[in-house]
Amino acid sequence: MLGTAEASRGGIAAVLQAYRRGGLWSRWPVLHLATHTDGSAAAKLGQAWRSWVRLLWLLLTGRVALVHLHLASRASFWRKLMFFLPARLARVPVLVHLHGGGFQNFYARGGGLTRGVIRLVFRQAACVLVLSSGWAHWLASVAPRAQVIVLPNPVSVPSVVHREKLSERLIFLGHLSKAKGCYDLLAALAMLAPRYPQLSLVMAGEGERAALMAHAASLGLAQRVLFPGYVDRDERDRLLADAAALVLPSYAEGVPMCLLEAMAAAVPVVASKVGGIPDLVSAGVEGLLVPPGDVTALAAALATLLDDVGRARAMGLAGRSTVIACYSDGRVLAQLEQLYARYAGIDSKSVY
Question: What InterPro entries does the annotation carry (predicted)?
């Protein structure tokens, strides 16, 4: 298993944590080699180098039956290429697992060489795992010979949720940036503020935190918006417990873990209609979808949930049911383990 360190922040780390909580590590003797970690450039380079050397040793000693490679765009792709190549030279099957909503733009904006390398990786992989049907269609269009399989992200579903009393607090979880729609969310909040005196927003995550704090202040929202930085699992659950909605107005996404986690907690969602989100959220059922960049539509969707708490509760419960049926860690990991057995040609007792 090649991917970022589990203790890192971000979507791939959250997926790996879900794998461990779901028991994958105990059922299969998986060795996780961290190819990236949070910290300085030297720490990141050192982590990648140590894992690359260890992978080479394992390949040379014939101890690798299968490689599961998690990658995203830009630096993540080029870094993982250095792991992909020796595995393929050793004739070890590689499952390439695509994450991050920006990969299509990364491909489109790359030069001919970049696009050629990406297509080569897709063709040489035993299979390419994507998060949604939309991604599968796109990948088939750029690499028709690639074996593409849709495998959603897994999420741990709490056995019980308590949402008796809801606040007028909106929650954003993720990287604080323009690409995630954070400035649009503040603009929508400014539109709603006069109508909802108790309305507030928590923007949890790292990124353009100082710039967004300044922007919130310029809109007169300094007392309404909290920027706690990165929050751990327990704090995230506490924030979601009485939230009015989880809001993710991104311009590009895969299948965001934060949406799955919110839905598992019976929290309704308002999100952009991009990437794999429409596969996850049916408009008006588990939440509301808006065009990316449309602040007026975003504000209207949020007002719909704030004005009709009964409908918001129903959407939250529908989202929880959807996650249990399609995205629970037990269901998704069962699919992944079938792929392990198929492509490694062995059972869970003998894969390394």
Answer: Glyco_trans_1
